[in-house]
Amino acid sequence: MSISRRNFTIGLSALGLAACDRGSSVAAFTSRSDNGLPADLMPQANSSYDAWVASFKTRAAGQGISPATLRSGFAGAGYLPGVVKRDRNQTEFSRSLEDYLAIAASEERITKGRAAFARHRDALRQIEARYGVAAEVVTAVWGLESFYGERRGNVPVISATSTLAFDGRRGAFFEKQLIAALKILERGDVSARGLTGSWAGAMGHTQFIPTSYQAFAVDFNGDGRRDIWSDDPTDSLASTAAYLAKSGWKTGEKWGAEMGTSAASSATPISVLQPDAGGPRFAVFRNFRAIKRYNNSDNYAIGVGHLSDRIAGGGPIQASFGPDKYGLTIEDRKALQSKLTAKGFDTDGTDGVIGPNSRKAIAAYQQSIGLPATGDPSRALLQGL
Questions:
Q1: Is this model's pTM higher than 0.85 or not?
Q2: Contact 208, 190 (CB under 8 A)
Q3: Which has fewest Cβ within 10 Å: 5, 142, 255, 316?
């Protein structure tokens, strides 16, 4: 593939519906009350979008999309302003590995991962036997991508990808996703109503974009459909294993290991990484590269690898990460969050990660005691709580 699955961390009658017909479709879709979507992720009237769709239909027909598929795919679809807002408001930032692992391999995610593995052990072992990818690694990808299926996304993929293709910032890329999504409908893997995902069109338990689905999804349970959307995760998990296998996964090798542990001597590493200065060092093997084909991020690949080790019964990272730039350890940050929340300044969790909610709580507390509302944590702030 020329574009990474994740580089897009993260889905009409005779090709000539008029704008008034589009309006009636939007009204029908908007009347749904059971999808739980915010207002800005519901279709809204946009004549320019309608004109773009009319032009797109001709291009789609030229690529073999049938009138019936265009009709069913765009029935109820429409322009989603919230998709454009989210796409333009994505913030580029660098999260420390310590913060990343506090989320990616939290105790809750580990506990849920072990339970999910136990529930689906037979299917996961069968998938491992066929594709050679460790079952715990597949489970870890599932955990990071959708919290073991709990957060698959319910935004209509046709609406999301057509909105982003029309918007134009990455128009060519998202038009390819839209064509691929329509081909999914053409093949009959899912109904138009069931073709849902994230606001950017990533779908199912392990968040495949449509072109990756076309390239790697498999029908593991043999029912004739490559179904990554249903509550049964089997096809999604097998598709993830197929993706990793085709990305160079070597059966029987580990992803990597923390330096200083016995597992770090199990093979010749391709590299030694230390993402956080002064923090743990990791020997990584060839399978690390395969995980990065799924998401081209060192933190992601370490997160998947470490979570898979924890699901398999392994222990936490042994080396200390040390204090952050504010002089606080993760335990200090957890204590800060806990004390703020107890005083009525809710940080929305005590994971030790100082994100937007924690900064808002800090700023509100600082303001309440007459300090500049910087939102920055500090040892003095912790001691004063």
A1: yes
A2: no
A3: 316
Domain identity same for 169 and 224? yes
Structure tokens at 63: 């690529």
CA–CA separation, 62 vs 300, rounded Å?
Answer: 39
How many domains does the chain fold into? 3
- Helical segments of 247-285, H only: none
- Sign of the alpha-carbon torsion through 222, 227, 232, 233: positive
The values of phi and psi at residue 319, to 5°, are -75, 150
Residue with the two structure tokens 């870890």: 140
Sole residue written with tokens 């519901």: 42
Beta carbons of 353 and 102 less than 8 angstroms apart: yes
- Which range of residues forms the domain containing residue 220? 19-89+154-235
Please list the residues that pair with 284 across neighbouring strands.
256, 271
Vertex 381: Cα angle to 377 and 382 (nearest 5): 90
Half-sphere exposure at residue 71, Cβ-oriented, CA atoms within 13 angstroms: 6
- From the list 201, 260, 264, 269, the residue with the least C-alpha distance to 229 is 201
β-strand pairing of 271-273 with 155-156: unpaired
Whole-angstrom distance, CA of residue 8 vs CA of residue 242:
21
What is the mean pLDDT for each group of 10 consecutive residues in the chain (385 residues)?
43 24 31 69 97 97 96 96 91 82 96 98 98 98 97 97 96 97 96 96 98 98 96 98 98 95 85 95 97 96 98 96 93 96 95 94 96 96 95
Closest residue by Cα to residue 297 from 2, 99, 7: 7
218 and 263 share one domain: no
* Residues 229 and 256 both lie in one domain: no
